[in-house]
């Protein structure tokens, strides 16, 4: 058998190869269509904010039509990052899943052509009521929504969940909060600290929501129209973007009529509105000031000229016309200098946004492209790194294009600047010894914080000056893939531990294998030069651990260190921390920094600590378990921590091997859906149980279950899903003397303490009387449900279905969940 660390590496490699989220950039930058869109965007002044609760809530066709069809400036506000959901793609859960979902939604919004904002409100998993959601979100969601409105200043807000009174509490709460945020954003007395910082109160003019159901009312969004420049319908472009939601298993739903249904927009009171307001032309949007109206009309005429020239591929004329439009806007802005003289401070702000749009269009017309590559992706304080910057542009666009420069955090400096072939420049950047990653207080609002370093080119076309910037990134190439990575300021040394968790039975005679715990530390040195690093692992008093070890690095790289830890013969129940550390001279390092398995271009950092969970758990001698896992099931590894012999059953083993060698066979969550071979092998599994085995089936989803009917007697999984979302909700024992609740571990109320996120989901809603329900569970204010743990005799054996969320509890080391799961697997030994 492979040891844990080899398995860990193998898993990581397989996942990295099979399951990488693509950095989807479906539309080619600075192409003719993009240049036309950039010009069209400047000519439309409406800003639209579309509010949802989670990544994948959004209507991709509506967003794409508003942005690419009407050319409005559209932003999506997703209140959460979706970290409380299930991961259909990889092992990441919680905040790590939030990173994946952020990247997916960012790729989707790039395809829709919209901006992206978030709030700090957490996705804490399924919530049954808006009240329950609002209790957890507190004031944060509303405060942050108001800040986003005051920052982006939308004229129109679309409340995606407006008027929805059923389903997920997060959705209902988003629908309730959006009109409140719209009202508060315009109220100078609401969240005054934001105003003290310099934001202005902002009242959006029009609040809309979606019209659902069969008879849609209001303005029907014509997203099936074909885009004249992309040659696809807006709905098609949107669906391609929506496919990025891969951790949500979205591909399976792509053909669904739900995603193709017509959508209309209405006011919340059902009255109609003038759709022209969604795309007001630039001249119509400025107040009736004679000068401003004239300037914006002149700018719009120049933009129209720029568009016609672009269509003729006369890029020089297009750039000249854009510069002329820019001059007009500049003159209008100058009327407001100094800003305090201005009667219309909002107008100046709007004009600056127009200027940004013109600058972006000019970069498109000139195909002005900056490529800025660092020689590595992780850089270290006190060292230097180099950046190669190359600028390309259309030769026929006249103008002066300055040498590139770098925009860096305070204290960082260019130590050297050398010309390279083809007008490229190589910068050597010196990082101060005390450098820290710059943070801005509102980084949470954006998908990712601003790039660490940017390259900038100053350009002048027809005496109109503008800047173009691009983030400095690094590329990592293997023979089969090329990744673009953000530049990251990393600690000089990081440590990743494996395993990060141990389980120790509190009462031992210890099996010999459990006496000594082995912790592997992968020590990564990110520095460029040679270094001596000492690595150690601390343990509680009375525990024995190997002494610190000295490592020598000649440059950046990895080394493995193995620590042996021996706990005292008797320890009390509880969690014990084994923190690892590394030191270089006087500096100490205590964190990991690891690529996410499913998204290796993003790094995850956490304290380098292994935890020993000690609790009272009995495991029958020689218990042998077969396990049918879909991808990324963490339970087999969790069971092995107890010393249980777990064999993963692949399709061949499931079809042909003698299953009688197992005391129990467990089916992992959603395995019937994700493993085709399981339906084929189901009769073998039922025969195995009837011949005296124990078959334990964890939650499956309703659609697959009702199609396959894989249980020995009739049983239905509830639709809508029966779930218990309160992890502290009461549990009633329906058969206290039943072996499942007594062998080998006596289960008590204590075993339902400290559960994480939820009790369970996809419970049975109806089942044959031959099944015996063992527990009754109840969410606050609801009826009891008994389909969460159900037992039946079948022939000489046992069949168990459970929707209890063992998949969440075991990886977190929850003692009661371990004890109960061991009981499920031990029922063949109970008789
Ligand atoms: Zn949602």
Query: What does the average pLDDT come to?
Result: 92
Q: Count the E strands.
A: 42
Quickly count the helices: 22
Strand order of the largest sheet: 3-2-1-4-5-7-6
In total, the number of domains comes to 5
Major sheet size, sense and barrel closure: 7 strands, mixed
Low-confidence sequence ranges: 1-28, 509-513
Summarize the structure.
With 831 residues, this protein is an alpha+beta fold.
Task: Give a verbal description of the structure.
This protein is 28% helix and 25% strand. With 831 residues, the protein is α+β, with helices and mostly antiparallel strands. The protein folds into 5 domains: 45-280, 3-Layer(aba) Sandwich (Rossmann fold), CATH 3.40.50.10320; 283-361; 369-485, Sandwich (Immunoglobulin-like); 490-615, Immunoglobulin-like (Sandwich), CATH 2.60.40.10; 624-829, Rossmann fold (3-Layer(aba) Sandwich). A 7-stranded mixed beta sheet has the order 3-2-1-4-5-7-6, with helices on both faces. The protein has a 7-stranded mixed beta sheet with strand order 33-32-34-35-42-41-39. Strands 21, 23, 25, 27, 28 and 31 form a 6-stranded mixed beta sheet that branches. Helix 4 (95-112) packs antiparallel against helix 9 (234-242) and helix 6 crosses helix 7 (169-185). The longest helix is centred in the middle third of the chain and has 22 residues, at 290-311. It is globular, with a radius of gyration of 30 Å. The model is unreliable at 1-28 and 509-513 (pLDDT under 50). The protein binds zinc ion. Zinc ion binds next to loops.
């Amino acid at each position: 058998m492979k040891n844990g660390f080899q398995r860990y590496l193998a898993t990581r490699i397989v996942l990295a190869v099979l399951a990488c989220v693509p950095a989807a950039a479906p539309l080619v930058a600075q192409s003719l269509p993009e240049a036309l869109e950039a010009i069209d965007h400047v000519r439309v002044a409406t800003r639209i904010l579309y509010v949802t609760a989670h990544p994948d809530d959004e209507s991709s066709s509506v967003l794409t039509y508003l942005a690419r069809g009407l050319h409005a400036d559209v932003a999506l506000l997703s209140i959460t990052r979706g970290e409380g959901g299930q991961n259909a793609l990889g092992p990441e859960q919680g905040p790590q899943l939030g990173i994946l979902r952020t990247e997916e939604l960012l790729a989707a919004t790039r395809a829709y052509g919209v901006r992206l904002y978030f709030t700090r409100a957490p996705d804490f998993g399924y919530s049954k009521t808006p009240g329950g959601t609002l209790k957890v979100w507190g004031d944060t969601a509303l405060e942050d929504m108001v800040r986003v409105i005051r920052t982006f200043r939308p004229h129109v807000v679309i409340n995606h969940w407006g008027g929805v009174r059923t389903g997920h509490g997060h959705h209902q709460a988003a629908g309730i909060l959006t009109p409140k945020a719209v009202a508060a954003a315009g109220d100078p007395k609401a969240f005054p600290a934001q105003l003290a910082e310099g934001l202005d109160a902002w009242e959006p003019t029009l609040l809309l929501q979606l019209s659902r159901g069969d008879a849609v009312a209001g303005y029907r969004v014509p997203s099936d129209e074909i885009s004249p420049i992309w040659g696809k319908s807006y709905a098609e472009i949107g669906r391609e973007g929506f496919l990025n939601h891969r951790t949500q298993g979205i591909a399976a739903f792509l053909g669904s009529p739900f995603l193709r249904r017509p959508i209309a927009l209405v006011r919340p009171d059902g009255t109609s509105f003038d759709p022209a307001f969604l795309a007001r032309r630039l001249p119509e949007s400025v107040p009736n000031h004679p000068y401003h109206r004239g300037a914006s009309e002149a700018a719009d005429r120049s933009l129209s000229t720029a568009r016609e020239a672009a269509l003729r591929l006369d890029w020089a004329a297009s750039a000249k016309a854009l510069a002329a439009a820019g001059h007009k806007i500049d003159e209008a802005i100058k009327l407001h200098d100094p800003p305090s003289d201005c009667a219309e401070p909002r107008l100046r702000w709007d004009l600056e946004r127009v200027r940004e749009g013109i600058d972006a269009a000019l970069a498109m017309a000139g195909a002005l492209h900056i490529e800025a590559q660092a020689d590595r992706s992780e850089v270290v304080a006190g060292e230097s790194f180099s950046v190669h910057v190359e600028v390309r542009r259309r030769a026929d666009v006249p103008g002066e294009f300055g040498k590139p420069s770098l925009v860096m955090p305070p204290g960082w400096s260019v130590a050297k600047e050398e010309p390279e072939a083809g007008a490229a420049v190589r910068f050597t950047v010196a990082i101060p010894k005390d450098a820290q990653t710059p943070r801005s207080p509102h980084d949470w609002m954006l998908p990712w914080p601003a790039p660490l370093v940017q390259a900038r080119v100053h350009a002048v076309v027809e005496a109109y000056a503008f800047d173009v910037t691009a983030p400095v990134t690094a590329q990592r190439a293997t023979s089969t893939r090329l990744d673009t990575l953000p530049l990251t300021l990393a600690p000089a040394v990081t440590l990743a531990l494996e395993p990060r968790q141990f389980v120790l039975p509190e009462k031992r005679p210890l099996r010999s294998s459990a006496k000594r715990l082995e912790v592997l530390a992968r020590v990564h040195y990110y520095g460029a030069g040679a270094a001596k690093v000492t690595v150690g692992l601390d343990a509680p008093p009375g525990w024995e651990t190997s002494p610190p070890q000295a490592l020598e690095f000649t440059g950046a790289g990895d080394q493995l260190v193995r620590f042996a830890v021996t706990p005292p013969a008797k320890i009390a129940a509880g969690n014990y921390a084994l923190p690892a550390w590394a030191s270089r001279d006087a500096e100490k390092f205590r964190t990991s920094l690891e690529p996410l398995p499913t998204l290796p271009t993003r790094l995850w950092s956490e304290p380098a600590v292994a935890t020993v969970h000690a609790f009272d758990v009995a495991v029958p001698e020689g218990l042998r378990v077969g396990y049918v896992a879909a991808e990324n099931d963490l339970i087999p590894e969790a069971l092995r921590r107890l010393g249980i012999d777990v064999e993963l059953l692949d399709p061949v083993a499931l079809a042909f091997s003698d299953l009688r060698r197992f005391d129990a066979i467990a089916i992992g969550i959603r395995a019937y859906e994700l493993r085709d071979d399981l339906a084929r092998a189901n009769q073998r599994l039922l025969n195995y149980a009837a011949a005296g085995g124990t078959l334990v089936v964890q939650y499956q989803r309703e659609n697959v279950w009702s199609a396959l009917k894989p249980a020995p007697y009739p049983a239905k999984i509830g639709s809508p899903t029966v779930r218990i979302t309160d992890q502290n909700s009461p549990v009633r024992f329906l058969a206290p003397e039943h072996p499942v609740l007594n062998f080998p571990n006596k289960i008590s109320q204590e075993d339902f303490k400290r559960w994480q996120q939820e009790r369970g989901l996809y419970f049975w809603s109806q089942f044959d009387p031959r099944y015996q329900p063992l527990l009754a569970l109840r969410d606050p204010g609801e009826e009891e449900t008994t389909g969460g743990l159900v037992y039946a005799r079948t022939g000489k054996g046992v069949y168990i279905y459970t929707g209890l969320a063992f998949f969440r509890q075991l990886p977190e080391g929850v003692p009661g969940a371990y004890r109960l799961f061991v009981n499920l697997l031990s029922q063949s030994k109970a008789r």
